[in-house]
Write a structure and sequence with these properties.
With 254 residues, the protein is α/β, with parallel strands linked by helices. The protein is 27% helix and 16% strand.
Length: 254
Amino acid sequence: MDDVVSQFVTSSLMGSGQFCTNPGLVILIRAPGVEEFVGAVSQEFMATPPGTLLSKGVAVGLQQGIQALQKAGAKQVTEDGVVDAGRYCRPNTLLTVSGAEFLKAPHELQTEAFGNAALFVIADDLNQACAVIDELEGNLTGCVYSANDGRDDVSYLRVADHLRPKVGRLLNDKMPTGVAVSPAMNHGGPYPATGHPGFTAVGIPASLHRFAALQCFDGVRVHRLPEILHDKNPGGRAWRYVDGAWTRADIESQ
């Protein structure tokens, strides 16, 4: 758990939370260890000095976003410490809301709090978590952390089935801020993440192919990938673009 806490805090507070792939909304399923996880993240947020925001407008907008989330039912679990009055900054802020409360006001609880703030939605079970996902607007990325031994693959497939249409880039077991400029990377997503689901700001030729419904799988385990993305070319007839060249050959594993 400590490793995931560290990964999340680093990703969430990188650049004072001003990366467009900042993990600002996290869905947790209520289970033993969840409260401990929330508490650990809260402590790390409060122990980390807040970064500098881009402008006064960003600082004001962040505060207004946090207040809107609280008005919609979110509870702040971090304490506001002293901030440097000589620069634009706000305390690192973590909020929580139950899955049931989120489903009562899904639009309001997706109010953007651009900056060093995050909202944890704690769902009662997998069914409620999927219902929360169904209410999400379009996003650039969606990350799923799951067991490494395959015991929750069935649950993963349910979550991924609901999440895949909502995001441009689907990740497994890694945070969304690791964006690489490569042909395989899609940095777009369904509206309102971008104006068109095929738009992407990074990657050549991906950034030029703006009229295709691009989907990106980042770190997704091989047995969870569509068959066309396996190393072995299914049927041996499909053309695939690999390492800058079109080929029908199987991919040789390194």
